[in-house]
Amino acid sequence: MGEWTDKAKGRVKETVGVATGDRELEAEGKRDTAKGEIKGKVEDAKRVIKDALDPDKPRGDGL
């Protein structure tokens, strides 16, 4: 699943787990949310690397 989907699914599970006292569901929700955060960071890093390696892209630094 995508970054946003994992985050949303995780938040829902975490909230339901807290509301129902289901610590296992709460923990699963936290894991899903963290997974979404990690996916976002990986995508950001890939974008930065791609931009750094693309010599034709204007950088806005005057070069």
From TrEMBL:
Name of this chain's protein: CsbD family protein
UniProt xrefs under SUPFAM superfamilies: Hypothetical protein YjbJ (SSF69047)
Domain of life: Bacteria
Assigned protein family: Belongs to the UPF0337 (CsbD) family.
Domain CsbD-like: 6-51
Species of provenance: Pyxidicoccus fallax
